[in-house]
Amino acid sequence: MNYLQLLQLSAPEAIVTLTVLVVLGVDLTALRGKSLVARFNVGALLSLLGCASAALLAFTRHTDANLFNGLLVVSPSSDFVKVAILALTVFTVLISASGKFTDHVGEYLSLILLGTIALMFLVSTEDLLMIFLALEFASLTLYILTAFNKHNARSAEAALKYFLFGGMSAAFLLFGFSLLYGISGSTNLRAIAAAIAGKGLDPLLLVALVMTVIGFGFKVAAVPFHLWAPDAYEGAPTPSAAFIGSGSKVASFYVLAKIFTLGFVGAQGSAVWHGYIAGWTPTVAVVAALSMVLGNLTAIVQSSVKRLLAYSAIAHAGYMLLGVLGNNQLSASGMMFYVITYALTTIGAFGVVAVVEDATGGDAIANFNGLSKRAPGLALCLMVFLLSLGGIPPLAGFIGKFFLFSAVVTASADLGLLWLVILAIAMSAVSFYYYLRVMKAAYVEDAAADAPAIKVPLLSFLALALLALLVILFGVAPGLLTQYL
Predict the structure, then answer these.
(1) Which of 203, 411, 421, 457 is such that its CA lies 20 to 30 A from the CA of 152?
(2) Residue 74: in which H helix or E strand, if any?
(3) Residue 365 DSSP symbol
(4) Tens digit of each residue's pLDDT, the chain (485 residues)
(5) pTM for the complete prediction?
(6) Could you give the number of structural domains in the chain?
(7) 197, 333, 311, 190: which is closest to 259 by C-alpha?
């Protein structure tokens, strides 16, 4: 293996890296002194071209490679997840193009692209060291993106909380990984699985499992490790919150499933009702149940739509963890379908919030009053996104839940995980209430008499319309996505 071959295998990441340099260079030279709108539009166009080129390369190549004992793993599945992450990055950039929260356009777009590179490396490894480095690389960009609105004190406060909780989670994760290395003598997931096979659940392995669950619990905002999420979602610039809730979720759940299904084979235990056996599955099951219950019940009392979406994300993290608990190929595929369609829907919902926030000065539910009359197209997109999050057929959110829940139910021969699926369905019904609160404001409540029509920026509207179309399309024809999963 020479450096040229290594560069070819990491070509999508290299293309996005070059895009970062181009965006920064053009913004700091040719666009200096231009209007904010012009700089965002040019930067968005360059970012779109770079991400599209990287996605096209990842999608069209059919390569299987495992380099340096799992440090870099290239496969059709990881390449498809990279395509999904790049697509989510493009939509994030498009809804950012009308933003007025920063004058540092080149730096902002570059940080989004750098975060994308980190997430792409995260899904392309089976080595604990590389997983940790990629996670921290991505986290550093997200901390800065959260603090990017210098005109809002909440942005700095949210970033500080996110940073402190993120640093704590990194410590737990690193300590857990160090114990796994001590037990197995390797940082490769498959070698770890071979080392712990048949040896039972000794105390060191048990501590390592719990530490790993805690570390990733922070990353995916699962209860009780979720405390940073509501403040980060509310205080961050809305496009940054969209990226935190979409691209990072896709990569985190992909690598989380890989760690448990590849690295902890033989240490799964059992989360079957009245048949619990110590291991990672009962631990994850408790975290999933708590996330679904607390996330949905707390979202009911929120008046800020961004905080509502934050608690909704916590609840959805609980649903997604069911795919990890299924511990087979079918449940993993169902989980990835769910995560990808959820990420598309979340970016769309935050995109609508961004437009309303710019027009009305806030993101409270009352700010959405009369949206159907002030911006009919925007209200229609919002309806599609919220109904999909609630799991209404025939949208992608319903199909995702159907695939995921049915795969988990059949994962054990005695339907032992049925209790979790019943809880998930019950909590999905609860979620209809707070999604319908926002829809009631948009379609039933009247806006103030002097409220003007909301002008939706062209790029934002095109992005939101395309996202709504994809949510409908993947619900009506899920095979368009499942054939690659």
Answers:
(1) 457
(2) strand 72-74
(3) G
(4) 667 778 888 899 999 999 999 999 999 888 887 888 889 889 999 999 999 999 999 999 888 888 888 888 999 999 999 999 999 999 999 998 887 888 888 899 999 999 999 999 999 999 999 999 999 999 999 999 999 888 888 889 999 999 999 999 999 999 999 999 999 889 999 999 888 877 777 888 889 999 999 999 998 999 999 889 999 999 899 999 999 999 899 999 999 999 988 888 877 777 777 777 777 888 899 999 999 999 999 999 999 999 999 999 999 999 999 998 887 888 889 999 999 999 999 999 999 999 999 888 888 999 999 999 999 999 999 999 999 999 999 999 999 999 999 988 887 666 778 889 999 999 999 999 999 999 999 999 888 777 788 888 888 899 999 999 999 999 999 999 998 88
(5) 0.94
(6) 1
(7) 190
CA 430/CA 319 separation, integer angstroms: 14
**Location of structure tokens 């990441």:** 13
Picking from 138, 139, 136, 132, the residue whose alpha carbon sits closest to that of residue 180 is: 132
Closest by CA to 471, choosing from 403, 400, 406, 379, is 400
Residue 328, judged by CB atoms within 10 A of its CB (0-12, 13-18, 19+), counts as middle
Q: Compute CA distances 284 → 133, 196, 212, 213, 258, whole Å.
A: 24, 19, 11, 7, 14
| Residue 97 phi, psi dihedral angles, 5° rounding | -65, -25
Phi, psi of 35 (to 5 degrees): -70, 160
The encoded tokens of residue 384 equal: 């599609």
State the chain's maximal CA–CA distance in angstroms. Answer: 72
Tokens of 280: 């990672």
Containing structural domain, residue 359 = 3-482
Angle, CA 75 vertex, CA 69 and CA 76 arms, to 5°: 175
Range 75-106 burial, b when 16+ CB lie within 10 A, else e: eebbbbbbbbbbbbbbbbbbbbbbbebbeebb
Helix (H, G, I), strand (E, B) or coil at 5: helix
- Write out the E strands in 253-312: none
Dihedral sign for Cα 271, 272, 274, 276, please.
negative
